[in-house]
Write a structure and sequence with these properties.
366 residues; alpha+beta; Alpha-Beta Plaits; 3 domains; five-stranded antiparallel beta sheet; 35% helix; elongated; disordered C terminus
Length: 366
């Protein structure tokens, strides 16, 4: 019996995101997809691990070694792409909106905010324990008490070795509410009590200047901090920072650059003695709504081809072509200006199906 040869069919497809359009070919086989040749040794590596107190050689998949969970604090290329995409959709869904309070009648503007959380004393727990017991609890309370429904977070390390977190949230929350909440949560692990002990010992003979910090922390500011600390019995350290982003001209560029920057465990950063930080779990995450973003995807037909010709004609410098795909760096707002109705409808239908995001142009182009 004659063997039937597989025929490979390339189907041109398009994927539309808030700030880019991707063109690629999807491969289909008419019969059976050929078996992938997999050289096990070529795609794996031997590493040394401590098992039952003994060092042993263990063979692991290279993709595992290159993942963000094994990165020592840096993001893999794939993780960077996913994080950048999550930020794109976060900003698309949470643009500042004017409204009127149903309770007070006051006009307000929903604002996104950028929060930084730090530990007020030396880290004595693993990164994962702090994420599970502190960060997770903090995010739960933001949702429950402050109506925060969307967020994206990234962990980094300070020079003293402590982990800290940057969080993008879809509502502005007062800094004192955040500080009180975070300090209460981290003190479940003793970090405020330890801070109090450290500061009382440092200032046991009265105010003592930190000379090594004078370049960035002037004497007058140190004295004010000392007086505030004594007044609160050292139970309200400045462990947080909150930035409103309404004055940032390019929020997407600012946030993406900040959250995806490289922050490895570099020389000069004190290592946490509890772990080597090679297997630290997630170094970024987001609310569930951003977990499985695919983008508005469909096959390229004659109407979409015509839309693409229009876009490439107006945005030639924004087009990048490779052997396997084409990327057009263009925002959906710029697409709207070109009047490319097929792409606009495709994108906003996806936004409604995926996020129940309603846009005034959706009805217009349907």
């Amino acid at each position: 019996m004659a063997k039937v040869k597989n025929e490979i069919i390339f189907i041109p497809k398009i994927k539309v995101h808030p700030n880019k359009i991707i063109l690629f070919n999807e491969i289909h086989y008419t019969h059976h997809k050929p078996a992938r040749k997999n050289d096990f040794k070529q795609n794996t590596s031997l590493i040394t691990q401590k098992i039952n107190g003994k060092l042993e050689l263990v063979r692991v998949n290279n993709s595992f070694l290159n993942s963000s969970r094994q990165s020592g604090g840096t993001l893999s290329k794939q993780a960077k792409k996913k994080l950048s995409t999550a930020i794109e959709y976060f900003l698309m869904l949470n643009k500042p909106q004017n409204g009127k309070s149903g309770n007070t009648g006051r006009h307000y503007q929903n604002k996104i905010a950028f929060i930084t959380l730090t530990l007020p004393s030396k880290q004595i727990h693993s990164d994962n324990e702090i994420k599970v017991k502190c960060l997770n609890q903090f995010l739960i309370e933001l949702s429950k008490y402050h109506k925060v429904s969307n967020y994206v977070w990234r962990s980094e390390y300070q020079k003293n070795g402590n982990i800290h977190f940057h969080i993008l949230v879809n509502r502005f929350v007062a800094w004192n509410d955040i500080r009180n909440r975070w300090n209460r949560i981290v003190n479940k692990l003793g970090y405020i009590d330890n801070y109090k002990t450290e500061l009382e010992n440092w200032h046991k003979k009265g105010f003592t200047v930190r000379t090594e910090l004078l370049k960035t922390w002037p004497l007058e500011s140190q004295i004010k901090a000392y007086e505030k600390g004594k007044k609160s019995d050292w139970h309200n350290p400045n462990s947080i920072d909150v930035h409103g982003l309404n004055n940032i001209t390019n929020i997407k560029s600012y946030i993406t650059k900040y959250l995806t920057k490289e922050e490895a465990i570099k020389e000069g950063i004190v290592k946490n003695p509890l772990e080597d930080r090679k297997n630290i779990g997630r170094i970024w995450s987001s609310s569930v709504i951003f977990a499985n973003i695919t983008g508005a995807t469909t096959e390229v037909d004659s109407v979409i081809e015509e839309n693409l010709r229009t876009i490439e004609e107006h945005f030639k410098k924004s087009v990048y072509r490779s052997e396997y795909f084409t990327i057009i760096s263009i925002s959906i707002e710029e697409v709207e200006k070109t009047g490319c109705t097929a792409l606009i409808e495709l994108f906003y239908n996806y936004m409604y199906d995926q996020f129940q995001f309603s846009h005034q142009l959706t009805a217009q182009y349907q």
